[in-house]
Amino acid sequence: MQQTRPAPTGVMRTFGHDEIIVSKTDPRGHITYANDVFLRISAYPECELLGAPHSQLRHPEMPRAVFSLLWETIARGEELFAYILNLAGDGAGYWVLAHVTASTSTDGRIVGYHSNRRWPAPAAIARITPLYARLLQAERREQGARAATAAGRAELDTVLAEAGTTYDEFVWGIINDTDGEA
Fold it and tell me: Residue limits of the PAS domain (predicted)?
């Protein structure tokens, strides 16, 4: 089920520090479960989310490169933590610190994905925003989604190489630097 994406309104939504947004998807990223916090924050009724691709929530200010890295990582059965800007059904944006993992069968085959998303500290968003702006700039110089994603990934790889870190280490550095900030 592909929905028409709302236009961003510029309104930013937040949620409680103790709340967790939970979703599950099938192997192709179509939503099979959404908890009540997800439904409330995303401003979508359950009937519109179930069966829809998780990419329905992609905010246009969120670099494709991060999702490329996310899919590459979880397809290998590895977990990923990422700061993600989502777009709610009413056009509001909301930031999350996502933890995405593969769900496996008893024989180790990936049967879907599970994501827990927490409230990110404002200082963390302030730290990740310049990187994402740089990735978006690289992506917007290209024509077509594949070329844009490749350009964003190349830029991400360059930034991380210059910093002598991985994306995972970068994210954990932000988490540790901003832990406990409100």
Answer: 26-77
The predicted structure's pLDDT at residue 181: 57
Domains in the chain, number: 1
Q: How confident is the model at residue 5 (pLDDT cuts 50, 70, 90)?
A: confident
CATH of the domain at 166: 3.30.450.20
Please report, as a single letter, which amino acid is at residue 4: T
23 in Cβ contact with 99 (< 8 Å): no
4 band by pLDDT with thresholds 50, 70 and 90: confident
- Establish if 65 belongs to a structural domain: yes
Alpha-carbon distance values, 128 to 2, 66, 160, 167 (Å): 29, 12, 13, 11
Distance CA 169, CA 171 (A): 5
User: DSSP secondary-structure letter at 6?
Assistant: P
> Within a domain: residue 3?
no
Domain boundaries, position 138? 21-178
Q: Is 168 exposed, middle or buried (0-12, 13-18, 19+ CB in 10 A)?
A: middle
